[in-house]
Design a protein that fits this description.
The chain has 176 residues and is an alpha+beta fold. Helix content is 16%, strand content 27%.
Length: 176
């Protein structure tokens, strides 16, 4: 199993570029930038749909993901409220859903097999970009997000409207 960082961090653009190369992730840092690792196919994820298809278990990373996520884009504060509701309601039987780190979110990006979406077909395409738990060290008011429409990551202010797709570490419950 591949271990990814689970705790939020403050990351510079250079930190993110180094992470992309170190982990072998596919994608660019910035929407108009070159792919950092163009010969990579990303992680060799091993997905399994659970809970009636509402969650996707990635056996490669040990992460459990929402198959879809939020149906609407929202600012970062609203994203935190969305996650609190998921946990209060025990979405799929769990109460420890969280925003992914940028490392975790980028682990889902794959070279596009169909127009513009750089994420496996196991996931809903509505969430073209998702918030992460990581902040920019260069622009402290900005938060990193992963863009599955285009295969990239970037940072934006907390007032921006971006989708949410939560994850959780499945090892906590022994569910792998």
């Amino acid at each position: 199993m591949i271990k990814l960082r689970t705790t939020p961090a403050s990351l510079s653009t250079n930190d993110v570029k180094a992470m992309m190369l170190e982990k072998g992730f596919y994608g660019a840092v910035g929407i108009s930038e070159e792919n950092e690792n163009e010969f990579s196919n990303g992680l060799a994820n091993d997905y399994e749909a659970l809970a009636g298809g509402n969650i996707i278990l990635d056996r490669t990373t040990g992460l459990m993901w929402q198959q879809s996520g939020s149906s609407d884009q929202m600012n970062y504060e609203a994203a935190q409220a969305y996650i609190a509701r998921l946990n209060r309601d025990k979405f799929a039987g769990f109460a420890d859903w969280r925003l992914p780190t940028l490392e975790e979110a980028m682990s889902l990006i794959k070279p596009a097999e169909y127009p513009a979406m750089y994420i496996a077909p196991a996931f809903d395409e509505t969430q073209r970009w998702i918030w992460t738990a990581d902040r920019s060290s260069e622009y402290p008011a900005e938060i990193w997000f992963a863009g599955y429409y285009g295969g990239y990551c970037d940072s934006s202010t907390s007032g921006s409207e971006i989708y949410v797709r939560t994850c959780r570490s499945s090892k906590k419950t022994g569910m792998i």
